[in-house]
């Protein structure tokens, strides 16, 4: 946890050096729509994985009836298939949606 907070703090600058300006985000106006689409698909995939994990916890805890388990499983499979189709339509795979967060690692856990 200390490493995460250390990453958020700005590094100290020597007293004789003026502070550097913050990095500016440079975007290519031609690829901004594709980048936004990839970001939205990534957020949807992250939410899908979180919902799937919560559903598995509920199944393991016995909180759901057999019919609810069937419906939840079918819904999650349909969402996965729809997301895969959207990715394929735009030339991505589900693995392409995993953003690299640098020292924090990948955004999405690897699916085994």
Whole-number average pLDDT? 78
- Fraction of residues in helix: 40-55%
Largest sheet: none
- Helix/strand-derived category reads mainly alpha
Radius of gyration: 20 Å
DSSP summary, beta strand count: 0
Order of helices and strands: HHH
Low-confidence stretches: none
Give the termini distance in whole angstroms. Answer: 26 Å
Question: Which outline best applies?
Answer: flat
Strand content: under 5%
What keyword list fits this structure?
3 helices, mainly alpha, 112 residues, single chain
Q: What would you say this structure looks like, in words?
A:
This protein has 112 residues and is an all-alpha fold. Helix content is 54%, strand content 0%. It has helices at residues 2-8, 32-61, 66-89. The relative contact order is 0.12. The model has no long low-confidence stretch (mean pLDDT 78).
Brief sketch in words of this structure:
With 112 residues, this protein is mainly α. The protein is built from three helices and no strands.
Strand and helix layout:
Blueprint: H1 2-8, H2 32-61, H3 66-89
Helix pairs in contact: 2-3
């Amino acid at each position: 946890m200390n490493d995460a907070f250390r990453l958020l703090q700005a590094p100290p600058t020597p007293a004789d050096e003026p502070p550097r300006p913050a990095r500016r985000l440079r975007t290519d106006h031609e690829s901004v729509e594709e980048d936004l689409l990839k970001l939205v698909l990534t957020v949807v995939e992250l939410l899908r994985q979180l919902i799937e994990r919560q559903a598995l916890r509920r199944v393991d805890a016995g909180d759901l009836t057999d019919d609810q388990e069937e419906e939840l499983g079918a819904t999650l499979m349909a969402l996965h298939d729809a997301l895969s189709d959207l990715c394929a339509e735009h030339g991505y795979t589900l693995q392409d949606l995993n953003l690299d967060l640098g020292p924090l690692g990948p955004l999405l856990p690897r699916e085994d």
